[in-house]
Structure prediction request, 373 residues.
Amino acid sequence: MAEEKKLFNVTIDNITIQVEPGTTILQAARQIGGDVTPPAMCYYTKLQGSGGKCRTCLVEVAAGSTADPRPMPKLVASCRTAIMDGMVVKNITSEKVMDARNGVVEFLLINHPLDCPICDQAGECHLQDLSYEHGTEGTRFEFPKRLFEKYDLGPYIQLHMTRCILCYRCVQVADQVTGKRVHGVLDRGDHAQIATYIEKALDNEFIGNVIDVCPVGALTDRTFRFKNRVWFLKPVDAHRDCPTCKGEVTLWYRGDEVFRVTGRKDQWGEVKDWICNTCRFHTKRTSDWVIEGPTKVNRHSVISQGHYTKLKKPEETFDKLMGRSPKLLLDIHDESEVNLPEVRLSEFNRPPTAEDYITTKALTEGKEKGEEN
Ligand code: SF4
Ligand code: FES
Prediction:
């Protein structure tokens, strides 16, 4: 009879689950899901040896294990720390963790430019999300940020090193997926940068995947740069019979046009399968693909905005409870002269123009002038 596998108990933010030995705290937290899961900017499930660089996933271990329930003296990187039986972990329930995470984000933003309005990664950037949740409104850094020239790493990829947070994911993709790495992290400390050193092109058939794994906008798709914003595009799952990769992708449409092709990502923003350059850069007609249907997008993502197929209005309970309709306390037109009383801005299905904002006062003045003439 097969021996039953022993599972470890772990409690994260007061939720206890059982996991297999060898599971990391981050993986266990992902099994619980939701806010309990620490953010991860450098860990990537599919890449061996990833994690341990960015420190965004720090957690507090309040009890090491049942055998040794002492707390760990410092916060630990959850992506690189394995669960012990009876471990108690605090993530969002720990003030220390929240404080440290704010500090980590502040450090990541020391050199990262706040150019989200013109960055292609905006709307799907993990650092953008993180800075909304943990960033401060100002910086305490008084020195100039590091600046680099943008340069093309071959025909498909552009490197904007100023945005890089040195997570090493692209280096690991080149090592583990393409098997032919010509770029890496050069120099150390404040001088560390991603480069090819002798301006080589990244030309492997699977090198396009570095774009998908980059958590910020440092590596972008040259065939898509500045063509559109992701929240205007409609992601659709599609596949094709590809001799090189599995051929399962997401097509990003605006109208009938496919603007870009990416790997399919899971809820943690990690690709499910690596895709080849032919699928990514050279097959951008609908006729190249078998369409499966709309991609499921998290409703909190900006990409899901404006893509409702059917609006479901919540049931109005006020009338039922009170036995009457809510009383209109104030008509805005009694108070404001922003627009004419017959102009109801909320009922437009277009953006208002200057014409709609003619005030009653301006109209009266106009009338008076007209009468004089
Ligand atoms: S270029 Fe992107 S993927 Fe590569 S190390 Fe920098 S942030 Fe990470
Ligand atoms: S995700 Fe754990 S250190 Fe970066």
